[in-house]
Each structure stands twice: as C-alpha cells, then as structure tokens.
Amino acid sequence: MNFNAPISPKLYARNAGLLYLLIIVVGMFAVIFARDKLIVSGDPAATAGNLVAHNLLWRTGIAADLVMHLCDIPVMLVIFVLLRPVDKNMALLALLFNMVQTAVLVANKLNLVAALLPLGNATYLKAIPPAQADVQMYLSLKLHDIGFGVGLIFFGFTCLVNGYLIFRSGYFPKVIGILLQIAGVCYIASNFMLLLVPEIAAKLFPASILPCFIAELTFCLWLIFKGVDINIWNKAVSGSS
User: Fold this and answer.
1) Which of 62, 123, 157, 184 is the most exposed place for a label (fewest CB within 10 A)?
2) Cβ-count burial 115-138 (b if 16+ within 10 Å, e if not)
3) Domain range spanning residue 211?
4) Is 194 a member of any domain?
C-alpha cells in the first residue's frame, strides 16, 4: 500500500457529503423531535413540566447538537481543501467565518443545559419559588434562540463566500453556488431581523429557512453522488500551485 499517494478529491467530497447529511439529519432530530416537542411557546410552566417529564429526551437533543458540531469540523476542513484552488484567501475567509459559527453554537448549548438547572431537586433550589424557576428556565431557552441566530449570521457569510467560490470553480455546478449565496442572504437577513425586529422575524422564519435547506441539501447530495469534475480540478490545482 502506498500511504503517500494523494487522496482523490472525489473521496474527500463523498466523505464530507456523508458527514454533511449526518449534520442535517441529527440537527433536524434535535430541533423537531427533541426541543419542538417539549417547548410550549409562551408557557414557561408547561415547558418546565415537559422538561422534567422528558429529561432524557432533552439531554439527548443536546448531545445530538454536539455530534452535529463535531461533524462540522471535518466538513469545513474538506470544503476549504476543495475550494482552495479557486482562491486560497477567500477559502480561508469562509473557513474562519465557519469556525466562529461553530464556536458560538457550541457555547450556546450551555443555555440548553442551564434551562435544566432551576428545575432540579437540589436543596438550595427550594429558595426559588416554582414560578420564578420556570421563568428562569424559559429565559435560558430564549437566550439560546438568540445565540443560535448570532451563530447563523456568521454561517450566512460562510455561505456567501463558499457560494462565490463554487460559482467560480468550474468543477462544481454554478447553480449550487447561486443557491448557497441565496441561503447566505437569508441567514444574514433573517437573523439580523431576529435581533432588531424579532416579531417580524418570527413571521418570516418559515419562508426564510426553506432556501437555506434546499441549498445545503443540494450541495450535500452533490458532494455524495457527484463530487468534483476531476479534469477541471486538476487544472485548477496546477494553476494555483
């Protein structure tokens, strides 16, 4: 076996695509089957009751989020490697935006853990009235929502830059680059609105997230089943060296 042989960019792409698909599936599980089933909008008491009754499901959702962010790291590295021949500095810029996004979202998981703390059975918690404990729990969840939006602003810039590089690459379809740039605009606009005018952002959320889902799933599936055009890739690598 030749351990010094270069790894095919198609293999890089396929592995990144499979991890990207895992990120999408695990992320959807954490949101749809863990948090959305337990959080009752505007009702701290009901939400607190759900978290106490389904504590393991809540914690499983947090663990799923961490698995998702662990997968983020190799995916962002492979995408950097694949797009570096187009423009190394721009690919590095996208990588840095993505790293900040992942760091923010990982730290933000602590808000989901913090939501459980006022609902525990520790003796010192008896000094807090139940209604106040429920409100503290709910405020942690609201802070998580804001932290999630802050992280996605950085991911929006990641999508803009990666979309530009994909469009220019020649070894990925231009349409994927366009879709990712549209997703980037949606991420940035909707999450700045979450900070500035949250009432409007909540109403526009379903419409703003759909282009993002389409773009990321399209890119993910292309990585798995098509990868890169090897001939154009080799020319790009030769030209950038």
Assistant:
1) 123
2) bbebbeeeeeeeeeeeeebbbbbb
3) 9-107+149-240
4) yes
Question: What is the amino acid identity at position 54?
Answer: H
pLDDT tens track for 1-52: 333 445 688 999 999 999 999 999 999 999 999 999 999 999 999 999 999 9
Burial zone of 239 (CB within 10 Å; 0-12 exposed, 13-18 middle, 19+ buried): exposed
Q: Who's near 169: CB < 8 A, 6+ residues apart?
A: 83, 85, 86, 177, 228, 232, 236
Based on its alpha-carbon atoms, the radius of gyration of the chain, rounded to whole angstroms, reads 21
Buried b (16+ CB within 10 A) or exposed e, 176-198: bbebbbbbbbbbbebbebbeeee
CB atoms within 10 A of CB 150: 18
Question: How does residue 225 score in pLDDT terms, banded at 50, 70 and 90?
Answer: very high
| 180 neighbors 159 (Cβ within 8 angstroms) | yes
CA distance 204 to 191: 11
pTM: 0.93
Number of domains in the chain: 1
For residue 22, being part of any structural domain is answered with yes
pLDDT in tens, 64-107: 999 999 999 999 999 999 999 999 999 999 999 999 999 999 99
Whether 80 maps to a domain, the answer reads yes
| One-letter amino acid for residue 47 of the chain | T
